[in-house]
Amino acid sequence: MELWFTELQEKGLRLGFKVKDVLFKGRSQYQEVCVYDTVTYGRALMIDDVVMTTEKDEFVYHEMLVHVPMMAHPRPERVLVIGGGDGGAIREVVKHPSVRFAHLVEIDQMVIEASRKYLPQISLALADPRVKITVGDGIEYLKTTSDRYDVIIVDSTDPVGAATGLFAEDFYRSVRNALRPGGIHVSQTESPWFYQELIGQIAGVFRKIFPVYSLYLATVPTYPGNMWSFSMGSLEHSGDIVAPDRYAALGCKYYTPELHAASMVLPKFVQDMIKEDPPRGVPGEAVERPHK
Ligand code: SPD
Question: Is pTM beyond 0.85 here?
Fold first, then answer.
């Protein structure tokens, strides 16, 4: 009998994966965590029936999430990743030779363990000696820590349930406070096709909090709408690439210096979404996925 995993991406929109094997299924105190071996996208990590990452297309998301802020910083030494327990973002962070310390704060130990066991190509850098793993709530950590970072990356699940706080103004203020001078922050901020309101609200908040704000895009085939957005706030640097010569060492499959610049060239409907003038609601409160 054929087995299919189907993500209900939006009202009236589903994405289906033919499954060869169910490698892991577990329920933590936070969520359901599954790893499937799929016919088309290889092994895939799902949380609460939403695709987090797949072996075939993960490089797009992780390279763009990480290398855009890292290459916009003159010398990132201390980097924090909130979420991202699969290790994909950390793998890209430690490719930068300037990094001395990479800190992963992930709330769910089960995500880390399942990824270590079933997604070794994604999670391999969790064993890098520069990496420290804290299992805990990133929101609480940033509220209370006196640690400071050059780059802070938020690799969250969708803004539903517990992750809603990772899209809230208070959280972004804690992020800014934890940046070293010249620091840069990036958050994954969902699909412009389905989260216009959220992306617009975050634009308003980032413009208030950070001296420099940019939005950039990448194409992730297994995420809703395929077009994915990343919101970047910087204390000082423009967001443009600062040292293209650092690129060769990264061994990328998607990110290039040209793409760094091109990813910030936005389609008109996305430009309209982040215009400065319209009144906006409050991110982290107003946005819910009605069908979930
Ligand atoms: N719609 C799913 C968005 C998930 C973004 N984060 C995924 C984590 C991969 N490291």
Answer: yes
